[in-house]
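Good morning C.,

I know you're traveling, so I'll keep this short. The sequence:
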Amino acid sequence: MEDLKRFNVAKLLRGGLERARGRAGFGLIEPVVGIVLMSIGLLAMAGLALSVSAFQQEAMVRTAQALAGQELLEQAQRSPFASVVSGSDTVTIGNTTYPATRTVTQLGPWVKEIQVTIADPSGKTSRTYTTRMTTPRPLPPP
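The tokens, ready to paste straight into the viewer:
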């Protein structure tokens, strides 16, 4: 009986060693796979950071264009009705100068439509802003 136990124990030990030899490289593959997956994740995050930066730059240009358009429209509305005419202008916001085109359309004797188009300095995009300007109608004679 003791020989039978020894035989089984020896057989179990041999089987364990054989299994351990078959999995010898498994401990090294796990960290390599983890590093590869981590690298892919970090590259994806870097790409995301770059695209966020590009979107932020575009948003800053749009905001500056909106400020420039608002300034030109307010300037036109502060001017006397007869002096508001079509033309070209530049507006400086911060350190950047934006080219602008003002188109004035007479809609009636007392109404003008003012359309301001602001281009970004690179010429890639432009934004158009529109408003209407009125002047008081003269009172009819008594």
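Safe travels,
E.
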